[in-house]
Each structure stands twice: as C-alpha cells, then as structure tokens.
Amino acid sequence: xxxxxxxxxxxxxxxxxFNVSFSQQSxxxxxxxxxxxxxxxxxxxxxxxxxxxxxxxxDFLSRTIVHFMPKEDFNHYSLSEITHKNKCNPELLYSVSSxxxxxxxxxxxxxxxxxxxxxxxxxxxxxxxIEILPKK
Length: 136
Hints:
- The protein is of the alpha+beta class and 136 residues long.
- The protein has 3 helices and 5 strands.
C-alpha cells in the first residue's frame, strides 16, 4: 500500500512538473488580433471580413497553440506541407526566418480546423510546433 502511494505521488509530481514547463513555453492564439489577421489575409476581399468570419476566426485562433519543443521529441506534419491562403492577398508573407509565436497568424494557412483530434505542424528547422486543437 505504501509503495503504491509513493508511486502515485511520484507520477503525479512528474505530470504536474511536465504540464507547468510545457505551458510556460506555449502561446495560445490571440483572439484580440482577429480583425487585423483577417484584414491581412483578405486584403483585397473585404466582403470576407464580416461578423460571421470574425466569429469563425476567433474559434480558430482560440484552438491554435504554438509550443516550443525540441526537434527530436515529436513526430508531426510540416508547416511547409500546408497550402497558403493567398487568393485575396498574393503579397502575404510566410517567412519562417523571423517567426514570432505571439504574432503568428494561422489564418494564412489551410489547416484542418475540423479534425477530430489535435494536429501538430513543425515549423521547419525550428523548435516550434503549431497545434490545432479539435473542435468541441
């Protein structure tokens, strides 16, 4: 009984420490930037920047998390495999050399927003992984 209790305490401590360190290195999509992000993507198509699109985009942003994870620790899709949304703004920039997780605009990409489980995309040559949470 005592051994089981110590084992549970050890596992609980490990999980708690992992969650704290993981969450400190993650950035959740900023819904306050939704209109700026939409205007960037739909620069020449203002008809797509409306209340319905804003609501949808807020949902997408709230389900986007950028994690800092060492390259060797995780299997993933590659961000370069995801097509870009450039129909309304062919001048959109997709540079990964100056990547900043706090300003990442996931609305520029055709992510699978309706997957039944989380999807992970590695930013090439970096320790950043973009997670798209499933729709609830």
